[in-house]
Structures are given as C-alpha cells and as structure tokens.
Known about the structure:
Blueprint: H1 2-20, H2 26-53, H3 58-83, H4 88-113
Amino acid sequence: MARFGILLVALIGLTTWLLSLVFRTGPERNALITSAILAVIVQIATFGIIKLLGKQNTLVAWGMGAILRGAVLAVYGLVFVRLLHMPPTAALISFAVFLFTSMLLESLLLVYES
Length: 114
C-alpha cells in the first residue's frame, strides 16, 4: 500500500506538471491541485478496497472501485466545481486524467504482486 501511495503521488505530480503546461491561469492551476488531491484520496481508497477484498473477489472490488470513481467524478463536477468556483474544463479534465493514469498504475501493481 505504501509503494502504491508513493508511486501514485509521483505519477499525479508528473501529470499535474504536464497539465499545467496547458492550463496556465491561476484558477486553472488551483483546479489542477484540487483535482490532484482528490484523485489521490479516491485512488488510495479504491486500491484499499481491492486489497481488502483480496484475490477471491478482485472483479467485484474492481467494479466497486469503478463505481466509486464515477460517483466521485459526477459529484465533483455537479457540486464541488460550482461550489468552489473552479474552471470546469480544467477541474474535470484533470480529475479524469488523474483517475485514468492512476488506474493504469493500479493495474500494473496488481499484476506485479500476483
């Protein structure tokens, strides 16, 4: 779990830097940082669910993680982006990119551990 957390923060940090080349304004960069923090929290929670349910229920755990990610993305887009007055394009694109890239990392680590 610690290895995943360290690699996750490094991956999201690199992705944030790459996205900051596109989203250059102050509010857009704040949206990037907010999305990055939220993505780390969501991904650690979903990886914890997968590790908790173990190898016997991996597909169920992965499905639960996908539902959690989708639900958080929807609530983030419909509620928190407006509530925090963030630019929606920067916030939602960055959050979706963070979730996608970290899901790839999650898959690699699960294959490596088995």
